[in-house]
Amino acid sequence: MLSEFLKDYLPIIIFLIIALGLSCAFVVVNLILSPKHPDPEKLSAYECGFEPFEDSRMEFDVRFYLVAILFIIFDLEIAFLFPWAISLGNIGGLGFISMMIFLFILTLDLFMNGKKVHLTGNKILDYELRK
């Protein structure tokens, strides 16, 4: 039984061994053949063509995080939509209604966050954070 299992997975194991060997070989060849004389210009910090002039650990505006969270929320919405669209014929009307409720809640959330967060240009969030 074990030999049959290994026989089925032998091409995958060979592929993984070849991929691991090639990737290690590429790293070693790069270490051997790459130039070893770094230029001071190349080693200097680069920030949009200007020398860095502030501390790299400065505080970020919280709005960047809120936009990232909104992106994650709506990216997950798409992840739920694909399986739903594929199985729509099997789940019937209840599945359709439940997904419409889900989409309505997410759309409502988008409009509420768009109104509250900086996406509309309002300063409401800045005012709330200073309280």
Description:
With 131 residues, the chain is mainly α. The protein has a single domain (2-130), classed as Methane Monooxygenase Hydroxylase, Chain G, domain 1. It contains five helices and no strands. The chain has helices spanning 2-33, 40-43, 62-86, 88-116, 124-130. α3 (62-86) runs antiparallel to α4. The longest helix has 32 residues, at 2-33. Residues 124-129 have low confidence and may be disordered.
Structural class: mainly alpha
Q: Which CATH top level class fits?
A: Mainly Alpha
Q: What CATH architecture would you give?
A: Up-down Bundle
Supply the number of helical segments.
5
Estimate the global geometry from the Cα principal axes: flat
Question: What order do the helices and strands follow?
Answer: HHHHH
Major sheet summary line? none
Q: What is the average per-residue confidence, as pLDDT, rounded to a whole number?
A: 77
CATH topology: Methane Monooxygenase Hydroxylase, Chain G, domain 1
The CATH superfamily bears the name NADH:ubiquinone/plastoquinone oxidoreductase, chain 3
Domain module count: 1
Give a concise summary.
The protein is built from five helices and no strands. With 131 residues, the chain is mostly helical. The protein has one domain (2-130): Methane Monooxygenase Hydroxylase, Chain G, domain 1, CATH 1.20.58.
Summarize the helices and strands and which ones pair or pack:
Blueprint: H1 2-33, H2 40-43, H3 62-86, H4 88-116, H5 124-130
